[in-house]
UniProtKB/TrEMBL annotation:
Residues 1-21 form the signal peptide. Coiled coil: none annotated. PANTHER family: OUTER MEMBRANE PROTEIN W, PTHR36920. Gene3D superfamilies: 2.40.160.20. Keywords: Signal. This is OmpW family protein. InterPro entries: OMP/PagP_B-barrel (IPR011250), OMPW (IPR005618). GO terms for cellular component: cell outer membrane. It is found in: Cell outer membrane. It comes from the Bacteria. Its main location: membrane. GO terms for biological process: transmembrane transport.
């Protein structure tokens, strides 16, 4: 009896492994998406200057690898984005800066919704501020680490091509120092709403 149960367990394991390998092979473990993303900054400022940056639409490329049909990792990339920096206290635009925000997420993809493939993700964002051009000798901390949350859906158009809708909340902050005037934190914390196309291979 024990031998029969052991043989059955081995057979089930082999069958499951073969089925997953066949599915992974059919779909391919890689998914590359190109998105247009609207960046809407939260603009939370503790310096007293009423700092904000402009919202804008940015291009985004992400690369996902599927470890199983449900579990994937996604790396999100763009090029350094230039923003105007405004101050409510100083009456408008006071300078510019760039930020580069690569993000790495672990995802769970739901596979029981027919033609819709929703997913959720959580991970970490690293942002590098550069080309800071601010008055009065103001400086910002050039490195930011923070969490990132995500929800989205892929809608298959063909066997390999899909339409993608994606929403992310990314927590980005930096220390701002204006010598002899003020210092504090500026939190960008953007909401990112994107639409694009994905290619699975």
């Amino acid at each position: 009896m024990k031998k029969n149960l052991l043989a059955l367990a081995v057979l089930c394991a082999l069958t499951s492994g073969a089925a997953f390998a066949q599915q992974a092979s059919a779909e391919g473990p890689w998914l590359v998406r190109v998105r247009a993303v609207n960046l809407d900054s939260a603009d939370k400022d503790s310096t007293g200057l009423g700092l904000s940056i402009n919202n804008k639409t940015i291009p985004e490329v992400d690369i996902s690898y599927f470890f199983t049909p449900n579990i994937a990792a996604e790396l999100i990339l763009t090029y350094p984005q230039k923003h105007d920096v405004r101050s409510a206290a100083l009456g408008g635009k006071i300078g510019t800066l760039k930020h580069l925000p690569p993000t790495l997420l672990a995802q769970y993809h739901f596979t029981n919704f027919g033609g819709f493939k929703p997913y959720v993700g959580a991970g970490v964002n690293y942002t590098r501020f550069s080309s800071v051009n601010l008055p009065l000798g103001a400086t910002v901390d050039k490195n930011s680490w923070g969490p990132a949350l995500q929800v989205g859906v892929d809608i298959p158009l063909t066997k390999q091509l899909s339409l993608n809708f994606d929403i992310k909340k990314v927590y980005i902050k930096t220390d701002v120092n204006v010598p002899g005037v003020t210092s504090g934190k500026f939190k960008v914390d953007p909401l990112l709403v994107g639409v694009g196309l994905g290619y699975r291979f």
